[in-house]
Recover the amino acids of this structure.
């Protein structure tokens, strides 16, 4: 199986410098252009289905792929972003730093949990379970359109590649024979040494 692991485009929360996570925001105009460019890159890749996060920003990105390729888009709840930021979700980062300085400091460790957030092990279990389910289908080529958090977790916990930098509408092409996973290509993803 070939898997296109894709991040959504730029959002309003990105340009407003907000703590994102598991909340709703839309693509910016730039994010829409990124989505169109992504769709053009994927047009001849024989993707059979796009498994998409339920968050608006992911669905808006998936819509560009659907329009260009005609591919089926299926919403999968468990590939949504982690609610890592708890009470700070959606808050401008500068405001959060003033209001919750201790929690902001806590966020420097990916595996720590902020009040009201989803703990790392629950998040890991959810994403790994979704990955295992989606990659055991009979399809030859799929896309998983998600967020930075789940994609980083997949690189860290499933692919054993450590930490990554990931851009808007970035993707990795992963091949699997059911046992061995190999990264065939990346676009906008950089593995950190």
């Amino acid at each position: 199986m070939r898997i296109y692991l894709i991040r959504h485009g730029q959002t309003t929360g990105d340009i407003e410098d907000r703590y994102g996570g598991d909340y709703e925001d839309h693509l910016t105009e730039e994010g829409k252009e990124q989505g169109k460019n992504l769709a053009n890159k994927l047009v001849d890749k024989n993707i059979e289905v796009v498994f998409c996060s339920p968050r608006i920003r992911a669905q808006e990105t998936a819509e560009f792929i659907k329009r260009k390729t005609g591919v089926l888009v299926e919403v999968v709840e468990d590939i949504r972003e982690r609610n890592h930021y708890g009470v700070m979700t959606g808050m401008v980062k500068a405001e959060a730093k003033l209001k919750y300085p201790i929690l902001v400091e806590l966020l420097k460790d990916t595996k720590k949990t902020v009040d009201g957030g989803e703990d790392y092990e629950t998040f890991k279990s959810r994403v790994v379970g979704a990955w295992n389910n989606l990659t055991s289908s009979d399809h030859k080529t799929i896309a998983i359109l998600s967020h930075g958090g789940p994609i980083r977790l997949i690189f860290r916990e499933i692919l054993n590649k450590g930490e990554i930098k990931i851009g808007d509408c970035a993707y990795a092409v992963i091949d699997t024979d059911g046992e061995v996973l190999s990264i065939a290509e990346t676009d906008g993803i950089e593995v950190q040494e």
The first helix runs from residue 12 to 15. The helical segments are 12-15, 29-42, 56-69, 93-99, 101-106, 120-134, 148-158.
